[in-house]
Design goal:
Number of strands: 2
Number of helices: 6
Order of helices and strands: HHHHHEHE
Strand order of the largest sheet: 1-2
Strand content: 5-15%
Helix content: 40-55%
Distance between the termini: 19 Å
Radius of gyration: 19 Å
Largest sheet: 2 strands, parallel
Length: 145
């Protein structure tokens, strides 16, 4: 069952839903009325759905792309001001079944020692990063299935 709010990956990551959203974006990439509606919703800064974000990312209307870029900057400035926000990486695992050549975790790389952190190790890493003053983490892991 697809549930975007679930903490279980198999419930909120659905290949079918991803393809459906990509198809929706492709079909609506020049739908000016829909894009204007999404931009109006984005202006309220209450969030847009991943489906709506895909429509904006696929947009093929030059004037609307300018509006998207301008609004994105306004929203970024409102949330973060004139500063750079850094995320500290937290590497949970470097096991991966994929073969992405740009990534050192790829399955064909036989020259690295594979590691998967335990719950206790993750807790220690989070505490250490917090003690170093980090407030935002980017969770990093390879794909295991």
């Amino acid at each position: 069952m697809y549930n975007v709010m679930s903490a279980k990956a198999e419930e909120f990551i659905s290949d079918e839903k991803i393809k459906e959203c990509l198809s929706y974006a492709e079909e609506n990439k020049s739908n000016k009325e829909l894009i204007e509606g999404i931009l109006a919703k984005a202006r309220d800064m209450k969030g847009i759905s991943h489906r709506e974000a895909l429509v904006l990312l696929d947009c093929e209307l030059p004037d609307k792309n300018e509006e998207i870029f301008k609004l994105a900057k306004e929203i970024k400035d409102e949330f973060y001001g004139n500063r750079i926000v850094m995320f500290a990486p937290l590497y949970l695992s470097n096991y991966c079944v994929n073969g992405c050549e740009y990534c050192p975790y790829h399955a064909k790389n036989k020259h690295i020692r594979r590691v998967k952190l335990s719950q206790e190790e993750i807790a220690k890493e989070v505490i250490a990063l917090q003690d170093m003053g980090h407030k935002r983490l980017a969770i990093e892991a390879g794909r295991t299935r």
